[in-house]
Recover the amino acids of this structure.
């Protein structure tokens, strides 16, 4: 990877309008420390959970934008954590990390809602790239929500009636003028 590309990745992680909250759920102290050090240096607020049960408890108590989740942990597996996490917080971006990477694991985690998949050992550059992609995804979702809200305000302020339907011909939006 050339210096220009590395600088743009670092800029993506550092020059954001919010500080991403990241939870690292992994039973390996070495991975925990490396992820925390790198992501904190890049401007993220990082917390650590050494197993899935603790990770889910932390997720219940606080919102995390991104979760780095190990698949193979003692006690509760990463797949179980992923299923529970996505049911409770579908907007959280989950990046699965594992030393047991197989196509089957990758497909299964993506079906359960994982955003991306990193094989251990991964380099700092690989982690930066996937975190940058996650931040861009979050930023895009925020932009869509903002634009949707602006559009609703504009439509509601029109003096002419407006009615929109979804693809199954159900009413999706009716402004106050239409309702009168």
């Amino acid at each position: 990877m050339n210096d220009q590309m590395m600088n743009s990745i670092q800029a993506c992680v550092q020059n954001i309008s919010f500080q991403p909250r990241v939870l690292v759920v992994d039973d390996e102290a070495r991975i925990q420390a490396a992820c925390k050090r790198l992501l904190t240096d890049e401007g993220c607020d990082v917390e650590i959970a050494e197993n899935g049960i603790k990770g889910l408890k932390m997720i219940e108590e606080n919102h995390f934008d991104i979760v780095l989740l190990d698949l193979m942990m003692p006690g509760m597996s990463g797949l179980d954590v992923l299923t529970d996490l996505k049911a409770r917080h579908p907007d959280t971006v989950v990046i699965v990390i594992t030393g047991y990477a197989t196509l089957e694991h990758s497909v299964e985690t993506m079906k359960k809602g994982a955003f991306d998949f990193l094989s251990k050992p991964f380099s700092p550059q690989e982690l930066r790239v996937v975190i940058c992609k996650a931040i861009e995804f979050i930023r895009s979702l925020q932009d869509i929500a903002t634009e949707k809200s602006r559009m609703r305000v504009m439509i509601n302020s029109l003096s002419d009636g407006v009615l929109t339907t979804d693809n199954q011909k159900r009413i999706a939006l009716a402004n106050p003028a239409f309702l009168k």
User: Anything to note?
Assistant: The CA atoms of residues 90 and 113 lie 8 Å apart. The mean pLDDT is 85.
